[in-house]
Amino acid sequence: MLTQNNHIPTILIIGAGPGGLLLYHGIQKHLNKNMKKFNVKIFERDLGPQDRWQGYNIGLNPHGIKSLIFCLPESLVARLPEVIPNPIHEKEYHGIIHRDHKGTEIFRTPPTRFKSLFEIAMSTYPSIISYRDRLRDLMLEDVNVQWGKKCIGYDEFGDEIWAIFQDGTKVKGDILIGCDGIHSSIRRQKLPHLQIFDYGITQVLIDVTPNKKLMDRIIALNGNVLVQKSFGQDGDTTFSLMRLIPIETDITENTPDDKIHYRISLCYTYYTHWDTRNKNINVNDNDPQSVIDHIKTVIKQHREPCELTDILLELVSIAPVSPPKDYEKTFYRTYNPPKRRPIQDINPMSIEPWESTRVTLLGDAIHAMNPFLGFGTNNALQDAESLVKYFSNYEKYGYKSCIQEYENEMRIRSSRDVLESRENCLTQNLPKEYNF
Q1: Record keywords: Flavoprotein included (predicted)?
Q2: Cα end-to-end span (Å), the chain
Q3: Crossing angle, helix 375-391 and helix 399-428, to 10 degrees?
Q4: What is the CATH number of domain 10-45+148-196+346-432?
């Protein structure tokens, strides 16, 4: 899009997560298709695509899938089943099961039947479990990410915006979009009064590869339900996401059970004061084995002995505590050391509407959410779709109107999901005499 000075506006995207990457693709697909209307540059603080762990599993709901289909080029849309595998008929139950601390079933969501992720996009079905790392790999295709560029702030001068990077460089643009996560330096500068809300709850997220022997025990307890939650009597919780698709692709009927593996993402949460008020706690978050030993101790202290507890302890025990050696077979693209992390969120409606400028925010940078309902990534994808649609009016109405319309829509939508997720998390972490 040429301005009166034959100037093609430049959009600077800070952060190459799902939201930033989808925004890049959406602009190229819809706004630069017939004539180049925008220059787009995308920057990422990681040193490369495998520099940091991207996680095994995430849930994508109909809103997120619709945004992927809208923004991604047709060539990548056709390959989405590679990273969001279609359900295995009569084998996978795409729903949620809830159990108490003894492993007794409380309830499960009604069964749903669908053949592909494209069916989900046209429905109100629940989430389908996707491989986050593979999704990111797919979205990185044909994107010229500038790696090793950590943005620490920006300067505005009239019609220009300059992104400032930790390496001392600056890049000029017309619009700056911060997709740089919950600790966004761009948000801190633009909206210093928008605060992070801390739940007083600690989470430990681990990604493990149980073999078929252990997976058979999990299925025997929970059936073939892919999202599993449990609630301790003292307020600790677990939830896990899995697919019943083996990692290995060369399995035969003679393959031993201990040579067949699956992916599970497991999150264990508990009250932070269980650690802070106990003077005998000695955990080093820079020592993964120390974290694993501590979590096993907490589980034993707050869970009754039963099959569910035994399975939880085994899953925690097989979490890797060191990077794999070069000669070792590993299912992990990179190494993710277990750490204790606070559960936090950001509600963009907790402050009055701000003046829209050349700087805006997307995803966790403006509306971080807890993982309990899986809304976070889906909202980031919706942000990208929304921005692309509003930028289609850039030439007619100018940047300020487009960004203002986007921010108005984004604030209402994401705030609703932040608060729903917050209520869900705080309720589920109540001691059970106050809950069930």
Answers
A1: yes
A2: 58
A3: 170
A4: 3.50.50.60
CATH topology classification for 64-131+198-344: D-Amino Acid Oxidase; Chain A, domain 2 (3.30.9)
State pLDDT tens for residues 384-422. 999 999 999 988 888 999 999 999 999 999 999 999 999
Q: Tokens 């997720």 label which residue? A: 421
Domains 10-45+148-196+346-432 and 64-131+198-344 equal at CATH topology level: no
Q: Is the pLDDT of residue 20 over 90?
A: yes
- pTM as predicted: 0.93
- Is pLDDT at 428 greater than 80 in this prediction? yes
From edge to edge, which strands make up the β-sheet containing 151-157?
A: 151-157, 160-165, 170-173
The ranges assigned to domains in the chain are 10-45+148-196+346-432, 64-131+198-344
DSSP 391-431: HTTHHHH-HHHHHHHHHHHHHHHHHHHHHHHHHHHHHHTS-
The alpha carbon of residue 400 and the mean position of all alpha carbons in its chain are separated, in whole angstroms, by 29
Q: Of all residues in the chain, what percent carry a pLDDT higher than 70?
A: 94
For tokens 């700087």, what's the residue? 359
Among the listed residues 304, 374, 116, 354, the one whose alpha carbon sits nearest the alpha carbon of residue 366: 354
DSSP structure class, residue 29: I
3-state secondary structure of 302: helix
Tell me how far apart the alpha carbons of residues 308 and 99 are, in angstroms, rounded to a whole number. Answer: 9
* Angstrom distances, CA of residue 234 to CA of 45, 231, 271, 423, 431: 39, 8, 9, 18, 4
Q: Are strands 10-14 and 39-43 parallel, antiparallel or unpaired?
A: parallel
* Owner of token pair 């936090």: 344
Residue 152 class from Cβ within 10 Å (0-12 exposed, 13-18 middle, 19+ buried)?
A: middle
Provide the pLDDT for residue 323. 72
pLDDT digits (tens, 9 = 90+) for 173-225: 999 999 999 999 999 999 999 999 999 999 999 989 999 999 999 999 988 89
Tokens of 259: 């040579």
211 close to 355: Cβ distance less than 8 angstroms: no
